[in-house]
Design goal:
There is one protein chain. With 435 residues, the protein is of the alpha/beta class. It has helices at 2-27, 31-45, 59-71, 100-112, 125-128, 133-139, 153-167, 182-186, 222-232, 278-289, 303-313, 330-336, 352-359, 392-403, 406-421, 423-434, and strands spanning 88-92, 115-119, 143-147, 171-175, 195-199, 216-219, 237-238, 259-264, 290-296, 321-324, 341-343, 364-367, 388-389. The strands form two sheets. Strands 3-2-1-4-5-6-7 form a seven-stranded parallel β-sheet. It has a six-stranded parallel β-sheet with strand order 10-9-8-11-12-13, with helices on both faces.
Length: 435
């Protein structure tokens, strides 16, 4: 916790430098400029190296959100007060085919028997066509999906207030990106009887909304729950990560000189410099295991060829590396390929994906270097704690160890999923969040 506390004075200094200017804009009725300054300020702060993985909260910015909400309240005197109905509403910035927060949203919609899902489109990706609303509607057929149509941030706040009045939700879940202020400002106009639920999926960097007191606070791991409860001095509910059970894989028997490895994750979870540069790790694994290596998830345009070039330089056949940037189902893909061990992403751990691969039965090898920022040190997500690695030679040893007594490790991974992350566990937690 000391490492997290060390960041707070610098966070306060950063915020104190810009809060007066934003507060002045709010006082002068310059709401668009204030909203933009908040969003860009959070995004800029989160790019500072000492922030990542060290702290989660932006109390000063959250105070500004409340000030904006009061000034932009569409009915400050309660003349048109409305009574909540039965609808459930979930607000996101964007929805993707992959990625934990999108998939959790889809699980929640199914668990609740339907919901209204609003996409704020803060970054304009739907407007530009780089994201498609069909991604959300096809993945969540039980949801009514609406993208905010207005262009300005303040106009989007007004549009969302109108949606609140039209839908009259009994609960609103907030699953927006770190710097997205729209939902929190609009929510100040909600009647007090509407349950507001902060879904804390932004668990590596500070995010707006985390300190707002009239929200139910929901975390997705007990590791992050510990930090949140200690900082906020109030209860947080853990919603265990859930992936629908699609059955255990039938594995081929791994042999020492032909063991196959698979990993999954986007480019944000790996580094291509430093002692754990991803292309060097892949080359080291293929040289030592003699088998095949699959990467599932988008690494961008140049990284796959960079990895293949590194393999060629080291005399390793690049055909032993298979790149799969997008798959319909990670679980189904893991069942189809002939891999034996799953290497969790590093240095940023895959969280929901770790649950999914263990449900499929894979032994999981994870990055365990203790000099990682405190918020990244997840261990509760892994069935076999003896499979953590801190150096590339140790990684090779752990991969080989995972291949030993392989059937026992497969059974242990599967049982770990069923006991802590199966449907019954998830549904009980959803009921607690909504009750």
């Amino acid at each position: 916790m000391n490492e997290q506390q060390d960041v707070l004075p610098r966070l306060n200094l950063y915020h104190n430098e810009i809060e007066p200017a934003i507060a002045s804009k709010i006082e002068n009725g310059e709401y668009e400029q204030a909203l933009y300054a908040i969003a860009s300020g959070v995004a800029s702060f989160n790019m500072i190296p000492y922030v990542f993985g060290h702290t989660l909260f932006l109390a000063g910015f959250d105070r500004l959100l409340l000030q904006l909400g009061q000034r932009m309240h569409d009915d400050p005197e309660g003349k048109a007060e409305w009574t909540p109905g039965t609808a459930r509403l979930i607000i996101l910035s964007e929805f993707y085919n992959s990625g934990g927060h999108s998939l959790v949203t889809a699980d929640l919609v199914q668990a609740m028997g339907g919901a209204v899902v609003v996409l704020t489109d803060l970054f304009g990706k739907y407007l530009k066509g780089t994201e498609k609303i069909e991604t959300a509607t096809e993945r969540m057929p039980m949801a009514m999906v609406h993208r905010l149509q207005k262009l300005g941030i303040s106009e989007k706040v007004r549009e969302l207030q109108t949606i609140f009045r039209a839908v009259r939700p009994q609960s609103v879940m907030f699953m927006v990106h770190h710097p997205d202020p729209i939902a929190f400002v609009a929510a100040v106009s909600l009647p007090r009887s509407v349950k507001k639920i902060f879904m804390h999926h932004c668990d590596h960097n500070p995010a707006l909304g985390g300190t707002l007191e009239d929200y139910v606070h929901v975390d997705f791991t007990r590791h992050i729950q510990h930090f949140c409860e200690q900082h906020l001095q109030r209860k947080s509910i853990v919603l265990p990560l859930f992936v629908e059970d699609r059955g255990v894989k039938t594995f081929s028997q791994p042999v020492p000189n032909a063991m196959n490895i698979v990993t999954a994750g986007s480019s944000t979870k790996y580094k291509f410099d430093g002692p754990f540069a991803y292309h060097l790790v892949v080359a080291g694994i293929l040289a030592a295991t003699g088998g095949h290596y699959w990467h599932i998830g988008s690494l961008g345009d140049s990284a796959p060829e960079f990895i293949r070039a590194t393999l060629r330089e080291r005399g390793i056949d690049p055909a032993r590396f298979t790149y799969m940037p997008s798959v319909p189902s990670l679980w189904d893909t893991l069942k189809e390929i002939d891999a034996h061990v799953f290497l969790n992403s590093f240095p940023v751990a895959g969280v929901r994906g770790a649950i999914e691969v263990q449900g499929c039965g894979y032994p999981l090898v994870y990055f365990a270097l203790d000099d990682r920022p405190p918020l990244l040190r997840h261990t509760e997500l892994f069935a076999d704690l003896d499979l953590g690695w801190r150096s590339i030679p140790e990684l090779i040893d752990k991969l080989k160890l995972a291949g030993e007594n392989h059937a026992e490790r497969v059974a242990r991974s599967r049982q770990f999923y069923l006991q802590g992350y199966g449907r019954e566990v998830f549904m009980r937690a959803v009921d607690e969040v909504l009750s």
